[in-house]
Amino acid sequence: MNDIESISMKGSGGSKMPHSHSTPAGVDGGSRTPPTTPRKAGKMLAVRVQMLDDTITMFQVQAKALGRVLFDQVCKQLHLLEADYFGLEYQEPNGTKYWLDLEKPVCRQVGLSLIDPLLRFCVKFYTPDPAQLEEEFTRYLFCLQIKRDLAQGLLQCNDNTAALMASYIVQAECGDYVIEDYPDHTYLSTYKFVPHQDQELERRIMENHKKHAGQSPAEADLNLLETARRCELYGMKMHPAKDHEGVPLNLAVAHMGIVVFQNYSKINTFSWAKIRKISFKRKRFLIKLHPEGYGYYKDTVEFFFEGRNECKNFWKKCVENHGFFRCSVVKRVVRQKTRVLSRGSSFRYSGKTQKQIVEFVRDNYVKRQTFQRSNSFRQTSGGRALQGLEGGGYRGATPSSSLMGSSSISAHPLLPLGDPALETPALSLSCGSMTLDSPTTVTSVSMGGTIHRREDTATSFRTLTSIDVHSPATPSQVPAPRPMLAVSQQRISSADKPATPKTQENNNSVYANEKSPEKRTNGMVVETNASTVNTPDLSPVKNVQNGEVEDAEVRKTKRWPTDKAYYIAKELLMTERTYKKDLDVINVWFREEVSREAELEGEAVVSLIELLADVHGPCLQEMEARLERWESNARHNIGDFLYNTLLNVLPLYDQYLENLIPVLEKLEYYTRTSRRFDQLCRDFETQKHCYLPLTSFLLKPLQRLLHYNSIIDRLLDHYPKDHTDFEDCLAARDRLGESLLEGLSIINQAENLVQLCEMQRDISGFDNLVQEGRRFIRQGCLQKYSRKGFQQRMFFLFSDILLYTFRTQQPNQYFRVHGQLPLKGMKIREGDNKTGADFAFVIEAQGNQSLTVAAVNEEEKERWLEDLSMAIAHADADPKMPYLNLNTCNSTDEVSDSIGLETDRGSCGGAKASQRINTTVHVCWHRSTSISYSDQLRAFQNQLSGFLLRKFKNSNGWQKLWVVFTNFCLFFYKSHRDDFPLTSLPLLGYTVMTPSEKDGINKDFVFKLQFKSHVYFFRAESDYTFGRWIEVIRSATQQGHVSGSFNGKEGY
């Protein structure tokens, strides 16, 4: 919109008349102020924007418009929700590449030519975790960027990795390898994946392509991103510079910090945790480091660029990357106009941070556009963008495919360059719509300034999804409302759709519209209904759900199992998937870390799990095949599988039980005595696939034995004695009982040892917490009374001593010992009213030591009093129990010397702190609660995984997530194939219940989690799974005390 300027005109008289003698305006002889006239529009620029598939789109913007106006138009054209990952890049004649400054006018961008300007739409912030990209279209754009980086030689890697990534590209665009279409590697010869492509590399690509059969384009995209992110040069854009000695170097900035390369070999990394300040002075780029603890010999590091513009350009990129990846929120700062004496650049990052993007997209999930892979471009209502101003579109795609739309699995091979089919014009950039071809096109200019060739018959459609969650059918069951077809620009949840009658038989919903496509995943039905206005039949329709793209076939009436045994077997499968991935954390990821560092100490850990991980791969495949037969109403049974499987694997578990305690003791010894190995373990735990402490994964086989026992007990309770599976289940339980009989004592010993090891890592100021005969009893928060009043302290109760600690304010946030009290001779009495606390009590120890503490409520107080009383009685009754002193350090230096690696703890920065923030000690601190050893044992027996629907906070929509419950915490994934969780929810302090009437949840099998004002709703697929989730979550939210016994069935 043009600015309007008011121009005031004077009267025609030469002198100003007195007011009484003047003639009013509009009367003859008087003067009239002319109406305001619009100022002429400023200079307009025709800006070319090259998209990630090399198509060119023209945008008309004023030269004085801010860069954000142009960027917003591009993102609007794409219907891009996660826009802040991207930017517009342009290149100076000398080769320097700049990002378009969104807060500066287009005409004032450094180095941008205003004569036929060309900008490129690119990925600006390369996320280290592609799973955090919520939209499939965003992941698709990232893949296009990876293809470009690979082809241009920016993403350098070895040939095996390059061939693997190229094979994922081929799989996404061509579909499965078909030998009739691709008899040899020559179908790849006309395409450029990497600069050094040769026949040998093409053969490797073809061999990898064969292995990807069955992968959807969305899965291939995600696998491509997962492979690319592990490359050392992922997201690294080199900026030439020199060090203080004149040695040529390359600098790059990424999510972790500033990286220094010599040619393409990384020689140093300055992580954001090490950097205190970055600045530039003319050609000098300065990195000011924190003065202590990071092992670098200087506080300030200097680099020299070719000129000031290049130096400032890199500085701005560093500022933006730090703001995007490291900050939770970036405050908008109004830039100051340049004065006579400038105080330096006022540039700041002005977009959303990564954390804000994730929260924004999840909160606005229902407003997302549907991204569909098809043989057409993505387009707005009937537009086609101009293509080929600088070469054609992306040639590695199927006919007529580009960034505007993505191909589904195609039956056609890759077309060679120059094929006439590639001359089909491309459609314009859009999202969530489809345009039907028309013989007539009309050229027009849209209001956004984009030039289009508009299709006359173009009509868009919107895919609506709903999830039908089934339960065992009963004669009196009320039919659920049927999802209706509608045309909308928002995702419509099943709760919002009007109801029409439907019939239901044996848990199978039959709709009147037989052609409604369906996708069933893990027992949940996802129905996709497409509605168009005045459009011909669109088939096949593609259904996109949770990153998966599948052909939507004609809906067929099908009977799905409703037997309780089916859901028990399904629980076995779901938990087996999680168990196999947990084993792979040690057998694959930790093995790779150990082999890379040549650490012999880690071989004992890997060898403990190796054989179990190998044998459970075929077991998982057989389990999946059995469940598929069960769902297809073929002959099925589970008892013989359990018996034969346990017969084969239990000897390995017996060997594991025999070696578990020695391996845990070795692990504790190596981490205590070897600084190198301890740091290796700490670094490994910062990786996202290691979502639990390393020691927790070593206990997973023990948990699995208990879960097998629980599964078999449920089957025996369900089956009648004359059932074919009953005898097999009975024999399986008898064989399993022999191993568990020896395993129960090992479980107690191993769990106690693991708890002591983990506490030793979280507590500083002692010599050695792990000692023979010491048992953990309870940990939690109490308020300790002092001259300053009550202050929060973390207490640790063991069989011989009581420690109280405070949490440091350093980034690693460990607990430092503040005091210690022996249990021998200790007395407990009720507190007086002088402190004013309601739930106070006094602890008196030998040597006139006395503490007044208060719990948060009466229940917490009773737990502490009971456990303290029992522990004191046991200590007094055992005359041989020694008092093992802990040396409390008083200075920071002594703390660092006593534990040896405190500096290394801090060096892990925010990633390490966030990785351990879900451990029980930190959760107890934040939620002012406590947990006992018996609580740990009860939670040890209860684990579960499977799909749940999570209700969105601000809408009636539900999101399907893969959820794993373990270690008092829920971990959330997009699917069971993901290597690491998206986020987690510690459950200590939460209560689990069914929704009340005022919650307004009109769905079956929904449970509610609440802690203070935090409320979450989750929806299970059946009555059995609903009951199981309630059971296991209550094991984490209902606490007990140390007197609880331990056996194979307790805790349910």
Automatic annotation (TrEMBL):
Residues 1-40, 381-406, 470-520 are annotated as: Disordered. It is found in: Cell junction, Adherens junction; Cell projection, Rhabdomere. Keywords: Cell junction, Guanine-nucleotide releasing factor, Repeat. One of its GO terms (cellular component) is adherens junction. GO terms for molecular function: cytoskeletal protein binding; guanyl-nucleotide exchange factor activity. InterPro entries: Band_41_domain (IPR019749), DBL_dom_sf (IPR035899), DH_dom (IPR000219), Ez/rad/moesin-like (IPR000798), FA (IPR014847), FARP1/FARP2/FRMD7_FERM_C (IPR041788), FERM/acyl-CoA-bd_prot_sf (IPR014352), FERM_2 (IPR035963). This is Moesin/ezrin/radixin homolog 1.
